Structure formats: C-alpha cells, structure tokens
Amino acid sequence: MNASELQKLTDWLIDGGRSAASPSRFMAETCERMVAAGLPLWRVGIFVRTLHPDIYGRNFIWKPGAEVELGTVDYKILESPDFRTSPLIIVFQQGLEVRARIDDPASKRFPIVEEMRPEGVTDYVAMPLPFINGTVNASSWTTKQPGGFTDEQLAALRQVVTPLARVIEIFSLTRTATSLLDTYVGNRAGEKILGGQIRRGHTDMMNAAIWLSDLRGFTALSDRLPAETVVDILNQYFDCQVAAIRTHGGEVLKFMGDGLLAVFPIDEYVGDAQQVCSHVLEAAQESRASIEALHYPIGDVVERFRFGVALHVGKILYGNIGGGNRLDFTCIGPAINLAARLEKIASRLHRTVVASEGFAGICRGGWSDLGEFPVAGFSKAARVYGLVDETPAS
After folding, report:
1. Which residue has the higher pLDDT, 180 or 263?
2. CA angle 155, 157, 161 (to 5 degrees)
3. N- or C-end of the chain: fewer Cβ atoms within 10 A?
C-alpha cells in the first residue's frame, strides 16, 4: 500500500472531491485514486436508496478503463430472488460488512460469487455506507488478486469508506432535493427554487400555452365509490395525461382534486408559438385516446371515463405566491382565468377538447367555430373552438 497516496485520497474526500464535476466523475476518480494507492480493485459498486415515488435506488458501477455505469431499480427489487440472496441485503438491513471469497465454501450461499468466478474475481466485500440520518447504503468491492484482499488492503478500504460515505451523502441529499421538487412542483419550478427563488413576490412573466382539464362526473363518482377506489381512479386518470404532457414539453404545475393545470413555455429554447401549440394539441389528442381506453372494473360493472381540457395561450405570472412563510410556486393572470372559464364551457357543450380563439388561431386546422360565449369576470365574450373530428358527447 502507498500510504502517501492513501492519505491524499482521504484528504481529497474530506475536502468534498472538488475536482469531480459529477457523481459519475467522482466515482471514477475515487476508484482511480484507490488503485494508485495500491488497492487492486476490479469492480466497484455504490448502491444508494432514493426518496422517489417510482425509484427505490440508484447504482454506480466502476471497472478499470470503462465508463461508470449508472442504473436505477424500482421497488420490485425488494421481492427479487437475486436481491434476497445478495450480500447487499445484509448490509442494507443490518449495517454489517460481508465478505465472500471464491475459495471459501461458506461463500457459496451468495449466487453472485459464482457469477463472478468466470471473470476471475477472487474476493468480494460489501461494506455499509452509513449516512448521518441513520440510513445505511451499500458499497461492493472486488479484486482479481490471487488470494483476495490482504488484511492491509481491507483496512485501507475501511479507512476510505467513512469519508466516501460523507461525500456520497451530499450528492444524495442534493439529488433528493431536486427529485422532491420535481415531483411536487415540477422541473422548471424546482430549478428556480433550488436556484434561490424562494421569497414571496419572486415572479417572472412567461409566455405559455395553458392546459386546464378535469374529469367529468367526478363529484358523483366520489359520492358512490369508496375513497380508496376514487384515489386509484384519479391516479390512473392523471397517468393518461401526465405522460403525454411531459413527452410534448409541458410541465404539470398543480393537481386540484380532479383538475390538472399544466403549462407549455414558449421561448427561444423550445420553439415558436406554432410549434409549441402543435405539441400541446398532440398531447391533448393522446390524452383523449388514453382516457377513452381507460376501463376500471368494479364488481360486475366496468367504469368508463370522460374528461375535458381547455387550451389557451397567453402571458402568465409565474413564481412564489402565498402568505407568511407558506408559499406556492404557481402561475396566475387573466390567461389562467380564461382557461378555467373555457373548461367550464367545454363541460356545458359536452366537448372533450376546446380552445380559445388565440390558441386555435396559432394552431390552425382541424377546428370548428362553436360560437361566442359570455365569460364571467371578462368584459368581452370569448369565441370558442372545438375539434372537427370530435362528436359532442351526450
């Protein structure tokens, strides 16, 4: 072992691994420095649990001379036979170090050892990465060195793992904050909040296409079905829209009961108004098809669903609004109010997709003029358009 290089590595970790610009680069540089210090590493894995509605954890895999592999696993991993027989489950659940050598008969209880035998691996060590909050994550270290890791090398690994866990925790906390903001307020708003836009009154004017939708008959549905069933229906109903909205460049700002508010920013980075509005219409048509195909069996009855969405375009005020220290990152303005009124008109007309004159004028073709309608709170009536291919529902 090179004590000087090992100390340099430890100091570098304590200082936060500042020369590494990303988690992947940090992983690679850490392993390269360990090899330079005399640790004969072959394959190194870092496994970190996440706070995310769909992803249970992320993994980073390093091998000499290769790019760091990034991966994610969902919550199904907890029921996986491979995970249940892995040394990692002992690390995660008990916080214990686990060693499995190829020449040790006791190691045969871990299938991963036999899987690595053809690669020439001689030793496998899984070590806990304890976070300050009590969470235990895991790391795995393998070598092809004849006889496996020496006692001195194992001691060096244990010396490195403690400061390594601190830096990984910082990366993890940053990613958790980003993920939570993305989950609850959306990517664009999350970036602004993390960037420091957290005071009441911090707002920007934004030109955007606006999407406001709701589920038809939701009140009656809620009255006759158990609350748990209603929640499951809502989740499936929102799935039909959110995927299409995000695919076409939109951002969901808010769920309001059965209502959904989304915006599609119009700026130099995403294209002009015509391009954006075309994407919005494609998302609306995809959502319509998905919701029409949504069947929900309840006993002998199969529930079918209808929704309505109003599309508008205009300037909105986007930012922190609220009272005291309880804020909401949302959007307001006459354009939002008009979209909400149009959505009610869509319901009265038994239409699924309606658009304002401004939206239909930008995204030309395929519209029929449904007439002018008085709009509460507005001095002028609004001309409303519906899709030509749509037959009004009764």
Report:
1. 263
2. 120
3. C
Indicate the helix (H) or strand (E) that contains 203: strand 203-215
Contacts of 233 by beta carbon, 8 Å cutoff, 6+ apart? 221, 225, 296, 303, 305
How many residues are listed for the chain in this entry? 394
The domains of the chain, with CATH numbers, are: 3-184 (3.30.450.40), 192-387 (3.30.70.1230)
CA distances from 189 to 51, 320, 324, 380 (A): 19, 10, 20, 33
Give the residue with greater pLDDT, 328 vs 91: 91
Nearest by Cα to 96 from 71, 127, 73: 127
Who contacts 4 (Cβ-Cβ below 8 Å, separation ≥6)?
Answer: none
CA distance 317 to 201: 10
Give this prediction's pTM: 0.70
Write out the H or E segment, with its range, that includes residue 209. strand 203-215
The rounded distance, in Å, linking the Cα atoms of 11 and 97 is 24
- CA angle (217 as vertex; 215, 223 as ends), nearest 5: 115
Return the structure tokens found at 222.
């809620």
Report the DSSP beta bridge partners of residue 385. Answer: 355, 369
Report pLDDT digits (tens) over 123-147.
999 999 999 988 899 999 999 999 9
Query: What tokens does 233 get?
Result: 């229906």
Q: Is the pLDDT of residue 393 over 60?
A: no
pLDDT of 328 reads 77
Select from 273, 279, 275 the least CA-distant residue to 207.
Answer: 273
